[in-house]
Amino acid sequence: MPLPSFFRSADYTPRKLGWLAVTLALAFAGGGAAAALGLPVGWLSGALVATAVAALCGAPVGINHHLRMAIYVVLGTSMGSALSPETFKGIATWPFTMVVLLVSVPVMMGAVMAYLEKVAGWDRRSAFFAAAPGALSAVLAMAETSGADTRRVVFGQSLRLFILVALLPAALGGLGHEPAGTLPINPVVPDVTTLVLSLLVGIGGAFLAEKLHFPGGAMVGAMLASGAVHAFGLIEGRLPDLFLIVGFVTLGANAGTRFAGTRLETLRRFFVDALAAFFIATAVAVAFAVLGAWLSGEPLTKVLMAYVPGALEAMTIMAFVLGMDPAFVAAHHLARFLLLALLIPVVARLMFGAAAVPSTDVDLDRTEPKD
């Protein structure tokens, strides 16, 4: 029986290791500078900005898949420490916010797609897949077989994540949310034995979730397993700050390196369109978040974090750092991921028919997109 992907061996060449070291050095420098300035989620956002700039300048920066999966386990394990019996009492309000979220998805996609196709002049296939709010891996796999311009899809999704990670914490602070620091404030594990047990629990949960092909398996599985033992009082405390700093920096670097291979001409052509699409999607998310918060009685900032069109892992980790309920945010982003993964193939088949030839109306950037 094969092992999950993050347990398999990898072929590390000196060149790949060298650029991985450069990537991490840039990310730590950017994250450290942002944290020193006291910026919200500084280690994460600073690393993202530093590596994105390097990527756009042509540097072949990148984060190894195995390192990324290991970091998801570490962060998921620590996020599980934020779960408590009070967390599960709050589940009673989730059906209200879940229903509103699921209604918001087609509205958001329709609004963004209408702009990209009718105003920006994108072909319908590319506009459809670029409008999907998250689930990039699943969306990209479907876009590649539908004739869409995958560079546009990846660029639009990557720019959206970049803006959310860089600016959303400050925006939530403007709405009155506190704290907005660089690291979570819940207590650290009291001793080495508890630290080792916490990691083993997280690894076990991640292993099981990956074997079951659960979306965001490494992080979500580790968070659920860790959350279970914390909710029952078997283990107390999150992982030490050093673990979290490495995790935040690596995650930020991974998001920033999505721009690797993107030419400046590609950036110039797609930037305005993707930026306008982001603001349209965010406006829809805010409107539905206001409705969801009103129906459920939950804080607007918490519901907005669950509704914004960002990646499951990044938004959940941001919620954790900002002192929100990571289980609430993860559950909603996971629900949207599953909805998109299930319905997009059906809708795409109805709209576009069987597999089509790739779009030929644009000069594509032929470099390989980052996933």
Short description:
This protein is mainly alpha-helical. The protein contains 15 helices and no strands.
Q: Topology of this structure?
A:
Blueprint: H1 14-36, H2 42-56, H3 65-80, H4 85-89, H5 94-119, H6 124-130, H7 136-144, H8 150-174, H9 192-211, H10 217-231, H11 241-256, H12 264-296, H13 300-307, H14 312-321, H15 326-352
Helical/strand content category: mainly alpha
Contiguous runs where pLDDT drops below 50 for at least 5 residues = 5-9, 355-371
Separate helix tally: 15
Overall pLDDT metric: 79
In which range does the helix fraction lie?
A: 55-70%
- Number of spatially distinct domains: 1
The general outline is globular
- CA-CA gap between termini: 26 Å
General description of the model:
By secondary structure, the protein is mainly α. It has a single domain (about 10-350), classed as Up-down Bundle (Na+/H+ antiporter like fold). It is built from 15 helices and no strands. The protein starts with 13 loop residues before the first helix and ends in a 19-residue tail after the last helix.
